[in-house]
Amino acid sequence: MPHWLPPYPLCSASQKESFAYESTVKRWPIILTGVVDEIARINHELAHSTDEKEQQKVEEGKKLINQIGELVYEMRHDRELKPLEGSALPNDLDLYNSELAALAEKGQNRWFSAPWLFAECYLYRRLHLLISSPSTPRWHLFDPFQSQKVSTWRSSASGAAALAKSLQSLHSAGPVQPKDKEDVKAWEKLRIDFLAIAEACLWGNATDLSLLTSLSHDEIKTLQSVERGQAFLLKNDFQKVWEHVKGLKEARVDLVLDNSGFELFTDLVLADWLVSLSPSLVKEVVIHPKLVPWFVSDVQPHDFVFLLSSLSDPSFFPTSGEEGLSTDDREALNALAKRWRQYVDEGKFRLSVPEELKMGEKGGEIAEFWTAPSSFCDLPVVAPQLLSDLQKSSLVIFKGDLNYRKLVSDAWWPTATAFSDALGPLAGKFPILSLRTCKADTVVGLDEGVEERVQKEDEAWRRNGKYAVVSFCPKDASA
Ligand code: F6P
Ligand code: MG
Residues of the chain whose pLDDT is less than 50? Predict the structure, then answer.
């Protein structure tokens, strides 16, 4: 049960004009149908195999297809959300089921009446329970979104290579070392580099495969690559963050990841700059993935490992066509691959769970919390161990839309609400930076008049990924 609730209604599909409604009616059934297609494709490939195990896999695949079909049916007919059952990890079913029981008491335990955030987490959790059920053992390591994640990453080759070359040119010039606090020129160079790289990391979040149901591949690529001016940044705390970062000394920074592929790549570019090109400000970056298939494109440990190996795999990125890479591009990507592997081995980049952790294996509270239904205002109560771990960090960067929704409890806040107010009891516990392109209705922290301006400019501004908010909340001295 939530321990803290915002003083405004939570987003829910019961509101017909909301993105929650559109998601429930349109996007989720499309996403689930895509999973069915993926299973059918694998089954088709195995259909003529004489191997007994593969035949069993086909039978289990058919079972899964039926069960996912039932899930779509329940959703379309606004059935009650069934309590979650199963023994597969993560160990969070009590959290889901107690919240579900509380919602049932309020008559909000159906697909359209439940808070959107809860229903959406429930959907991905339920999907994983089907995949990990004892009746489908040959599918336990199946990531239904894997092939989509890989192909979108492959088609991001040119954007990734351009960024890799920029980063490599900073490496060739070597770290900037201000002589002292008064070395204005050196600090200004660092500020400009930090802002450019943090901005690339922000817009990397425009890549989100769950949006592919409403945008084309090309539209998403345009969102990633368009040089955006300040007008698209509806809240810009970058300067405040820089003031914070430049005061750090051999610090730990945490990255609560969002999406695989291009976004993860931009995250690692930022991590690289922090540990190697800033003057001893940061010594390690702790990287937090998810443990189950989540909101289509979110990073799991295997996606992280795959991205590192893909960078130096000569057969991965195209050699010709629009995304074809040149020798220079490949050299830059290879250099990154080598350095990032070394950073992982040295612990400068540290995944919060072992990189070889498989789906369904024990990840512990620190990793499991990210796929619980809870908003982050409840983190201190629900995940005290994670709280004390994050309190060792000098900056926790939350990437993306879903993390933002969880930070602000996915409520219909007035847009002028201070970010720190919307964080509820999490405010001040550790320094928080959220880098989010707007892909859902909730938004806070806007100055007077911004909502009115942008509403006239683009009616879909809250959800189409063209706008972004950069929000920073420092740690309270007393925390
Ligand atoms: O399904 C809705 C949603 O949560 C949106 O908020 C957003 O479009 C997407 O899924 C997740 O976005 P992100 O990958 O940025 O968290
Ligand atoms: Mg995501």
Answer: 208-215, 225-226
